Structures are given as C-alpha cells and as structure tokens.
Amino acid sequence: MDVKAFIFDLDGVITDTAEHHYQAWGLLARELGIPFDRTFNERLKGIDRMQSLELILERGGMRDRLSRSEKEAMAGRKNDHYTQLIEGITPDHLLPGIAELLRDVREAGMRIGLASASRNAGTILAKLQIGHYFDTVVDPALLAKGKPDPEIFLKAAADLKATPACCVGVEDAEAGIRAIRGAGMFAVGVGTPEAMKEADLIVTGTAELNFEKIVELYRIKSKV
Ligand code: B16
Ligand code: MG
Questions:
Q1: 89 C-alpha vs ligand 1 centroid, how far in Å?
Q2: β-strand 167-171 against 5-8: which pairing, if any?
Q3: Is 17 in the pocket of ligand 1 (CB under 6 A)?
Q4: CA 9 to ligand 1: nearest atom
Q5: 211, 101 in Cβ contact below 8 A?
Q6: Dist. CA 216–CA 223, nearest whole Å
Q7: Which residues are catalytic?
Q8: Residue 215 pLDDT grade (very low, low, confident, very high; cuts 50, 70, 90)
Q9: Phi/psi of residue 8, each to 5°?
Q10: DSSP 199
Q11: What pTM did the predictor assign?
Q12: What's CA 88's distance to the chain center, in Å?
C-alpha cells in the first residue's frame, strides 16, 4: 500500500485562523459576560460553530435559557467578528512549510483534499491563493456529524477516489486526530505531544512537516 492522497485540516494547519476564531469567540464571550481563555478555547478547535457556542453557553450556565433563534443570532455575531478579522488574510499568512508540502504532494502525483469544519474555508483558500491545489473541498454543511466523527475525512477520501488506508490526514485538533484515526487513515498531528498523542506522527509546528518523512513513516507503519 502506498500514499494516494493528503487530506488537510485548514484552521491551525494551513493558516493560523485558529487564532482568529479564538479572538472572535473571545469578543462574543465578553459581550455575554462568560469567562473565556486559551485553555477553554482548545476544546473548540475543529468543532463546528454551533457546537462551539453550546460549549461556551454551557460554561456560562446559559445553555438552556436560550431559544434556537437566539443561539443562531449569537453564532452569526461570532461569524461577523470572525469575517472582519480574516479580512486581511493574504498568501503571506500561509503557515511555514505548507506551500512546500502542497507543492511536493502535487509533484508526487498525489491528490489533495480539504476537510475543514469551517463554512468560511472557500473564502480563506481564495485569500491564500491556494485553491488550485485542492481536488476536493468538503462542504461541512452537507455532513451529518462533525469531528471527531470520521465522516468529513471519509467524504474527502471518497471524492478523491482513494481508499482511506491510502490517505494521510493532517490536523491540529484532538477531535480532528480522532476523526482521522476513526477513518482508518495515517494521522499527522501539529501540536503538543500531549494534545496530539493519538497521531501516528507528531510535529510541534508546520515548519517541521516534511513530505519525504511523512511518506517514509507511512510506509514503515503500513508494513507492520
Ligand atoms: P466556521 P478546521 C474549524 O476549522 C475550526 O477549528 C473551529 O474552531 C471552527 O469553529 C470551525 O472550523 C467552524 O468554523 O465558524 O468558520 O464555520 O480546524 O476544521 O479547519
Ligand atoms: Mg484545525
């Protein structure tokens, strides 16, 4: 078996929009008078907008006091903050090593997919000017379940006509690593060894992502 495709997460892997999400949720939490910090924010990485809001409201003891439409309005407000914050994204905001990795994967003739929970993914890829690398961008609005469910990665693999065991998934969130492993794919985790402990290969930053190294380790692991 050999690698046929790479499937990437977006926020925190391709560009640092994880920081913009953190800032935008922080603004909303402040408006609601709910405490919010980076440790709590870790729990929101990789999960969708409404689920993130539910966790914040739960923290503030407000979860059961609001109607669906009030929650939708709040989620919309967070997205307004977020879209303002990502306004100035340019190709300079690609995280280190990502342009090289995309180029190496493409030059090796492998396919590339995006498995992001973000409904803003298309806009961000366009701002980064890397949309042309992607053979598929999964639309999270069409999925039944979010990460850590493997559905989004399985959908990307199906779009790419690659069996999951021949795919490498790259993630920065615990929920994302669980989704990749649940899909039966090789997982590359960007983050702390603690948060990424279920990954097959852990790097502490994207600058350490190396195409040859990933493929070599995949081959070693797929033989055992
Ligand atoms: P949006 P990823 C995820 O993107 C983020 O990690 C998560 O923090 C965010 O809530 C989610 O997208 C939804 O984003 O509000 O833009 O639809 O990491 O899966 O690329
Ligand atoms: Mg992410």
A1: 16
A2: parallel
A3: no
A4: 20
A5: yes
A6: 11
A7: 9, 11
A8: very high
A9: -105, 145
A10: S
A11: 0.92
A12: 20
